[in-house]
UniProtKB/TrEMBL annotation:
Domain Prepilin type IV endopeptidase peptidase: 109-213
GO molecular function: aspartic-type endopeptidase activity
A single BP term in Gene Ontology: signal peptide processing
Family the UniProt entry places it in: Belongs to the peptidase A24 family.
Transmembrane segments: 6-25, 74-93, 99-121, 128-149, 155-173, 185-218, 230-253
Name of the protein described by the UniProt record: Prepilin leader peptidase/N-methyltransferase
Predominant location category: membrane
UniProt organism field: Candidatus Magasanikbacteria bacterium RIFCSPLOWO2_12_FULL_43_12
Prepilin peptidase A24 N-terminal domain boundaries: 11-92
């Protein structure tokens, strides 16, 4: 039975990955997500149902539009596969009984999807929107209190550290180092992670950013003056800290003893 359960989760993740790709594109193009079927972004032809099956259609079409033969971006299958794997691993990590949907698992799937949207949108367009950050943070804050996911003290300290750090950088640099989107994302990170896991995420984000930036400079893909979509590192670090934050802290404290 668990095989069917986890297979269903994987397929669900593929479907949400496909939806995520469409949502990111339509948000940027100011197209309602409920308007019409998916289209080819090159020739604007509406796709048939068999051209819109997550992952499998990309393989079937050999990565090209059936009409205009333009190359379909690898973003689409990679996002679909990535979200499917993350949905699968989240359910496996939390160890819920097959065919049982718990509140924490539903919360984590929603947060993972939301973080994936922020990651992809910032990577593609260099912007962090209000929608996936502030409303999500408010809802999660008030749901966390009665359900016992986080204490209000932990979340408020997390908000102060996450949003405060980026607000400080924004003010002293007059917005040259950090954008307003990073402040809003820092607020969301504080609510998701609380204290002290927010410290793990911030540290990891700067480590990820530094390492990847050095690799890009070394590979001559960018230079030291180039802007970097820091929201991608913050969202990736938040995901890691959600599941491994306490273990990382305990490992670090153990080294100090």
């Amino acid at each position: 039975m668990s095989i069917f359960y986890y297979s269903g989760i994987f397929l669900t993740g593929l479907a949400f990955g496909s939806f995520l790709n469409a949502w990111v594109f339509r948000t940027h193009e100011n197209i309602k997500i409920s308007t019409g079927r998916s289209i080819c972004i090159f020739c604007h032809r509406q796709l048939m149902w068999y051209e819109n099956i997550p992952l499998f259609s990309f393989i079937f079409l050999k990565g090209k539009c059936r009409t205009c033969r333009k190359q379909i971006s690898w973003q689409y299958p990679l996002v679909e596969l990535g979200l499917a794997i993350v949905f699968f691993l989240t359910a496996w990590w939390e160890g819920v009984e097959p065919f049982v949907l718990t509140a924490p698992l539903l919360r984590d799937w929603i947060l993972v999807f939301n973080l994936a949207f922020i990651f992809l949108y910032d990577l593609r367009y260099g912007e962090i929107l209000d929608g996936p950050t502030i409303p999500t943070a408010i809802l999660l804050f008030f749901f966390s209190l009665p359900l016992g996911w986080q204490t209000w003290q932990s979340m408020l300290i997390g908000i102060g550290v996450g949003a405060g750090l980026f607000l400080f950088q924004y003010l002293i640099s007059s917005g040259k180092w950090i954008g307003g989107g990073d402040i809003r994302l820092g607020l969301l990170m504080g609510v998701i992670l609380g204290w002290p896991n927010i410290l793990v995420a911030l540290l990891l984000a700067y480590i990820f950013g530094g390492l990847i930036s050095m690799l890009l400079v070394w590979g001559k893909k960018t230079n030291l003056q180039s802007e970097t979509p820091f929201g991608t590192y913050l969202t990736a670090a938040t995901f890691v800290a959600m599941f491994f934050g306490e273990r990382i802290i305990n490992w670090y404290l153990g080294m100090l003893r």
